[in-house]
Design brief:
UDP N-Acetylglucosamine Acyltransferase, domain 1, 5 helices, about 200 residues, alpha/beta
Length: about 200
């Protein structure tokens, strides 16, 4: 049993370290731990998800509901979220029950990983590793965002996005990523796209 809280402590510490790495405004670990709602939402999700998997579904839903009212982030405890996921500014984020999120993902405020049908089964997106989803974006349905994808702010994505691509617009269109150098993976969508292919942004 001591292994469980020890593993949880390592994950919680990793979440704080990741937030400090992702957010240049973060000054120290204590500040992040006490004041970052995105980190609090992930922590609450980890506990709720463990309850969900153990069969305690009602307590899991109660905890996720309390976390939503405090953090502004609505994560269904049945969703699957990997490590080092950072929700920046947090408010208005919705992650549905059958959503799956990989490792090293950044999600900005106002993002929805939602469904387009009210039927049982897989109905929410699958997000790969090293993905960045811009503020206000809506990723809808049982689609897949490949590894290294970037979704522009306020994009509405309803189709698969291949690895390393950029999805922008309403409905979103996919553009190939210019750089093969993965050092830019923490950058928000390159503004130069808006000038090189103006027809895609009308």
């Amino acid at each position: 049993m001591p292994l469980v809280p020890r593993r949880a402590f390592r994950l919680f510490t990793e979440d704080v370290t990741n937030a400090r790495r992702r957010d240049p405004a973060a000054t120290n670990s204590l500040e992040v731990a006490l004041t970052y709602p995105g980190v609090h939402a992930i922590w609450s999700y980890r506990v709720a998800h463990a309850l969900w998997k153990s069969g305690a579904k009602t307590p899991a839903r109660v905890l996720s509901s309390l976390a939503r009212s405090i953090t502004g982030v609505d994560i269904h405890p049945g969703a699957r979220i990997g490590r080092r996921v950072f929700i920046d500014h947090a408010t208005g984020v919705v992650i549905g029950e059958t959503a799956s999120i990989g490792n090293d993902v950044v999600i900005f405020h106002g993002v929805t990983l939602g469904g387009v049908a009210m039927t049982p089964g897989k109905r929410h997106p699958t997000v790969g590793n090293h993905v960045m989803i811009g503020a206000g974006a809506k990723v809808l349905g049982p689609i897949r965002l490949g590894n290294g994808v970037k979704v522009g702010a306020n994009a509405v994505v309803t189709k698969d996005v291949p690895c390393g691509s950029v999805a922008i617009g309403v409905p979103a269109r996919n553009l190939p990523k210019h750089s093969k150098d993965h050092r830019d993976r923490d950058l928000i969508v390159d503004p130069s796209y808006f000038f090189e292919e103006p027809a895609l942004y009308i």
